[in-house]
Amino acid sequence: MELLSFEPPNGRGLSLLHGLANSVGIAFGSFGVGLVIGIGGAYGKLYGGPVVRDLLEVYTTVVRAVPELVLILLLYFAGTDLINQLLTALGHAAIDINGVVAGIGVLGVVQGAYSTEVLRGAILGIPQGQIEAGRAYGMPPGLLLRRITLPAMLPFAIPGLANLWLIATKDTALLAIVGVNELTQTTRTAAGATKAYFTFFMAAGALYLVLTLVSNVVIGRIERWARRGMPSIAGAH
Amino acid sequence: MKPFLKTALAATLIALSSAFSASAEQIKVGFSPEAYPPFYSQDSSGNWGGWEVDIANAICGEAKLDCVLTPIPWDGLIPALKTKKIDAIMNSMSITDERKKEIDFSDKYYNTPTAVIGAKDQKFDATPEGLKDKTMGVQVSTVHAAYAKKHFTEAAEIKEYQTQDEANQDLAAGRIDATQADSIALDAFLKSDEGKACCDLKGYVAPDLEVLGPGVGAGVRQGDTELKNKINAAIKAIRANGKYAEITKKYFDFDIFGDESQSN
Amino acid sequence: MAAEIPVIHAAARASLWMQPHRIALILVALAIVVASIFLMRWDWLPTYLPLALQGIWRTIWLLVVTSALGIAIAIPLGLAQVIGPPILSVPAKVFCTVIRGTPLLLQLWLLYFGLGSLFPQFPWIRESFLWPILRQAWPYAVLSLTISYAGYEGEVMRGAFAGVPRGQLEAARAFGMSRWKMFRRIWLPQAIHRALPTLAGETVLQLKATPLVATITMVDIYAVASRVRQDLFITYEPLLLLALVYMAITGILVFGFRRLEARIPNRLG
Q1: CA A65 → CA A68, A116, C58, distances in Å?
Q2: Quick check: B124 contacting C, CB < 8 Å?
């Protein structure tokens, strides 16, 4: 137990918390990136031309069929590689992409595929008359998205998005394989250094569990807020 | 045509040198974030120290390089170097012909024998006959893994671990009978409480220069001779000015540089 | 006429699918494939093929065994949460929450390295007859993947059991079926039928979780690809091939589940 205290030289509690902070940051970032990709992807799948639709289909199918671990390795090496080659080709110096940023990008691409499907379903769930009415008022597409589509689809999207958020928090653990300094990785090094494998993995498990439970409470609140003014849950289906 | 070509060439060179100078000031030294005492170890607040960290700092100080230690998992080090994520590797990486096809190496900065340790209650030695029907753990993509695959694969079952630390852990747990690695790193494990309880030295493996290489050097990108020469000069300098000996004394009671004449 | 309709239908579908832009896209994809065949390094393939086949076999074995065991545990877990007394339903609920709330990689390492670090303290474990099995990596891989699948599926089965219309069960009781018979003949088949679409998705997720076992020294197809990467210092070729292998297995899984789903309603009549 002394190993988990916050006091150096023996306590590694702080380094675990630092890892947790990184994990939450990466989860937030990748969820956000995924959401942006998802909105674009859902729009593309619904309203895009045939080529866009097919390419998006390939994207979502590949991401959903290939293990995250493999995607992370591929994107982690290929992504930074490509960006730097592009930069050098354009005459800039190669930049350093740190693990956290790379992690956000990689997991964001993975999340984007799932978000695309969730949001596509949610947009289809909106009574289409609302969107048509907006269009009839002469709303430009941007305003239509902001004022009608996004708020109206939110209640339909939230259960799926909540699930994606929980997946995002847990997928950050996979970044330990590429050495990103998140909770699982800090736990692994701390456990290796002290040989207290059991203690540290249990402690990290507890931290992840707390993160999930807190998320669940917050999600519940958001769900109630998004459904305000709507008929009871049974009516929404 | 000619003057134009000249100016174009000059412009490119300037652009190139400015692009390079940006990265030459600060170089990123890759290492895998895992305990490999006494070369790499992490204190409770997450800072890395150890013999190799001190030596890396000494080399960088001598070469007037601003080095940043960058954690990359062991099996991603060479790809990371090639894709410019890092500029050098200083992570007890042995100089081998296999690796020289991919990256360049500085001169060696240490060389120690390769040992096999195993469970105390079993008697065997570090030969194919001794390891017959044993399970041996090695760290992936190390010279030890290559050596074990070449010499022991018919006798023993070889298991590959992400880190040497995990192999040691499984040896202590009894999941494997032996592990092969650098003698100093294994010695540090044998001196720990856990190592003392479970294991002892079984011997040193027969030499195989082709696989084990002449020692440990700093990995640099192929063609990055500027950095390589700087590092080589710095290694020579700290050997000569006593800095190397000073650092080594903190961790070892003997010089781990190995044979003086042998160099890359 | 009746015989002709499906033919027209199939032809129409094919022409719908084979639009000009699709043909262009397929050509582009083919060009990329051909380019990567010639521009990338594949000379290692013959050497590593036997190892790769063995790895694929291990991956599939792991998937089938852990999914089957996981379902077997998930059914009582789901049932306990729906009709169990608190003494059963609360632990089942806690189990599902904990498993679903923590990363599988952490669970795997806790089981493998965490338990492993306890072995030296209990010498009798090493003397037991189970030791030859316990010292290997696969039992921990199977255990951890099974528990994970059971945790997620337990939740799915809870929903599926709860979703079977009460009238069905009341009718069964009215027929004088015993509780066990009612469960076996009515409740379980309908619940599984309801869970099948989700099960297909979860099984694909389970496949995608299998490469984690490579981190505890099990040599599945992912570990084989890692070995190629490490032996030859090439990054992309083995990973791309690996992605292809997983996509193929996913394709087979999805196809299989669709066939299964299509068959079940016919049987129920």
Answers
A1: 9, 15, 18
A2: no
- Contact list in A for residue B42 (CB cut-off 8 A) is 189-190, 193
- For C156-174, the three-class secondary structure string (H helix, E strand, C coil) is HHHHHHHHCCHHHHHHHHH
CATH of the domain at C148: 1.10.3720.10
Q: Are C246 and A195 a contacting pair at CB < 8 A? A: no
Beta bridge partners of B105: B219
Q: Are residues A193 and B79, on separate chains, in Cβ contact within 8 Å? A: no
Find the closest chain C residue to A72 by CA distance. C239
Indicate yes or no: CB of C105 within 8 angstroms of CB of A188. Answer: no
Per-residue tens of pLDDT for chain A, all 237 residues: 567 776 656 678 888 999 999 999 999 999 999 999 999 999 999 998 889 999 999 999 999 999 999 998 888 877 777 887 888 888 777 666 777 888 899 999 999 999 999 999 999 988 888 888 998 999 998 898 888 888 888 888 998 999 999 999 999 999 988 878 899 999 988 888 888 899 999 999 999 999 999 999 999 999 888 877 766 544 444
Strand (E) or helix (H) holding A50 = helix A50-65
Query: How many CB contacts within 8 angstroms connect chain A with chain B?
Result: 69
On whether residue C86 sits in a domain, the answer given is yes
Mutation for testing the A interface, residue in C117, C145, C245 having most A CBs under 10 Å: C117
- Are the beta carbons of B147 and B114 closer than 8 angstroms? yes
Residue with tokens 């009215």: C174
Which domains does chain B possess?
A: 26-111+215-251 (3.40.190.10), 114-207 (3.40.190.10)
Compare all CA atoms of chain A with the CA of C94 and give the residue at the minimum distance.
A209
Q: Which range of residues forms the domain containing residue A37?
A: 2-236
CB contact under 8 A, B19 and A195: no
Structure tokens at B8: 């174009």
Interchain contact, B175 vs C135, CB within 8 Å: yes
Mean pLDDT by 10 residues, chain B (264 residues): 48 44 69 87 84 95 91 85 89 92 94 93 91 93 91 92 91 93 91 90 92 93 94 95 94 86 50
Number of domains forming the structure of chain C: 1
Domain count, chain A: 1
Q: From the list C120, C217, C223, which residue is nearest B173 (CB)?
A: C120
The partner residue sitting opposite A93, judged by closest CB among B23, B83, B165, is B23
Q: Taking each helix axis as running N to C, give the angle between helix C188-209 and helix C45-83, from 0 to 180 degrees, rounded to the nearest 10.
A: 140
Provide, as residue numbers in chain A, all residues whose Cβ is less than 8 Å from the Cβ of B32. 179
Nearest to B163, CA basis, from B190, B187, B142? B142
Residue range of the domain that includes C206:
49-268
Q: How many Å apart are CA C174 and CA C28, to the nearest integer?
A: 63
Q: What's the first-to-final CA gap in chain B, in angstroms?
A: 45
- What ipTM was assigned to the predicted interfaces of this complex? 0.87
